[in-house]
Design goal:
By secondary structure, this protein is of the alpha/beta class. The protein folds into three domains: 20-222, 3-Layer(aba) Sandwich (Rossmann fold), CATH 3.40.50; 227-297, Helicase, Ruva Protein, domain 3 (Orthogonal Bundle), CATH 1.10.8.60; 311-416, Arc Repressor Mutant, subunit A, CATH 1.10.10. The protein has helices at 21-32, 47-60, 76-87, 95-100, 114-123, 130-142, 155-163, 168-185, 201-207, 227-240, 249-257, 262-278, 286-297, 303-316, 319-335, 340-350, 357-370, 386-396, 403-416, and strands spanning 37-41, 64-69, 148-153, 191-196, 218-222, 244-245, 283-284, 374-377, 380-383.
């Protein structure tokens, strides 16, 4: 039995890290062999926790672990500065870059904070210099006395922001071509890069016709916990927090969630435990599970958690593709599935409004499957997560008319006119 604590909304490590031993073993082997990695998977699967836990394990083997979250980066210059900040605390690593930027970094970098170092690096970068300085940055990491494992998190969000700039496609292509050269240059185990994000990189570059720019990243997909692992996590947490379950409680939790997304399993346990504390009970019943699923997981307090899916969807798609995605997801929530007939109705409804609507439908379905919203069963697309489906249904069904009903109504109105 571990000393695992309940964890919601944060990355976990050590004893709080659960049921990813095989994934870690494979990833550690790939990194030690010098392979750059693209860590993919559905939202809330714990990709950041896996990337960080791998860093902790590698540090035990005398690696240096750097973590850069580039979600807020708007330009390549911003991204370079974020990585420089991540390396600031490693004595001597950034000295080469600082020497090259002596007109902007006049201080001894050991005497300024990581944030101030980032600001000074950013002030010295522009559209004409970021590539050269970025190359120096990666070389500083690769030439360090210890091997370096660098995680670049939320790279796909950075690329979608870059895409919205004027000549955004050209800027993304330019950046990815440069980034590919860095991956090629540093293809040994002196510097290994792992890229991850809460939206899919592969569907994005495929849509842009740039898939070859990431062919030096080995894909590794993280799946959900199995049913048995999800129940085991619940039972371990219950024992660690001195909570007693009625027989069948873990089974009911998994049934209602529909899939073992680690964050949702942990979040459900937290709500059950806090409810027991509020009512001064140590015993959790199946009735409690059903009540808290409706009032907690799907209720107002669960909105921030689940609205993350909607937010990331908007960030990862352009406006027209986002409209198509919202129609597909709401149809799948209200009708229990999205099929070829609904797709044909959607195409006819949006044909006057969106150019190449059939291509967009195909691309959006690929994104929705890759990012874990929908899965394909025979000829139907369904929500993988019952929790997400029920939340989407509660949020939109009151003002949604199914696609084919809407098309039939439009035709009837035209005939009457």
């Amino acid at each position: 039995m571990t000393n695992m604590r309940s964890a919601t909304g944060r990355w976990v490590t050590g004893d709080d890290f659960f049921d990813r031993e095989s994934e870690l073993k494979i990833l550690k082997s790939r990194v030690e062999d010098g392979n750059h990695v693209l860590l993919a998977g559905q939202r809330r699967m714990g990709k950041t926790s896996i990337a960080r836990e791998l860093g902790r394990l590698l540090e035990k083997d005398d690696w240096v672990f750097l973590y850069a979250d580039v979600e807020d980066a708007e330009t390549p210059e911003d991204m370079i500065a974020e990585i420089a900040e991540a390396g600031h605390s490693i004595q001597g690593m950034m000295s080469r870059l600082a020497k090259q930027m002596k007109h902007h970094i006049t201080d001894n970098i050991d005497e300024i904070s990581a944030y101030d170092f980032k600001l000074k690096v950013r002030a010295g970068l522009d559209s004409g210099s970021w590539k050269r300085r970025g190359e120096e940055l990666f070389s500083s990491c690769a030439n360090y006395k210890q091997p370096v494992y660098l995680v670049i998190d939320e790279l796909p969000i950075f690329l979608t922001r870059l895409l919205r700039h004027e000549d955004g496609h050209a800027q993304v292509e330019n950046f990815l071509s440069w980034f590919r050269r860095q991956l090629q240059t540093h293809s040994n185990n002196d510097l290994v890069i792992l890229v991850s994000g809460s939206i899919g990189l592969e569907p994005l570059v495929r849509r842009l016709g740039l898939s070859d720019r990431i062919n030096h990243l080995e894909p590794f997909r993280v799946g959900p916990w199995s049913e048995s692992a999800s129940k085991q996590c619940l039972n371990i947490l219950a024992e660690n927090y001195n909570v007693k379950f009625e027989d069948g409680v873990p089974d009911k939790v998994y049934e209602l969630l529909g899939i073992g997304i680690p964050h949702h399993v942990q979040s459900f346990f937290t709500r059950l435990r806090e409810d027991a504390i509020m009512h001064e009970r140590e015993f959790i019943s199946i009735t409690d599970v059903e009540r808290l699923y409706t009032n907690g997981m799907l209720g107002p307090s669960g909105q921030n958690d689940l609205s993350h899916y909607e937010k990331r969807l908007h960030e990862g798609l352009d406006d027209e593709s986002h409209k198509v995605a919202m129609e597909i997801l709401t149809e799948a929530a209200v009708k229990e599935y999205f099929d070829d007939r609904a797709s044909a109705c959607l195409m006819q409804l949006f044909h006057p409004l969106i150019e190449n609507v059939q291509e967009r439908i195909t691309e959006v379905l690929e994104v929705l499957q890759h990012d874990g919203y929908l899965c394909r069963e025979n000829e139907h697309y369904r929500f993988e997560s019952r929790l997400l489906k029920d939340w989407w249904y509660a949020r939109y069904q009151g003002h949604y008319q199914p696609l084919c009903e809407r098309l039939d109504e439009n035709r009837s109105n035209k005939e009457e006119v």
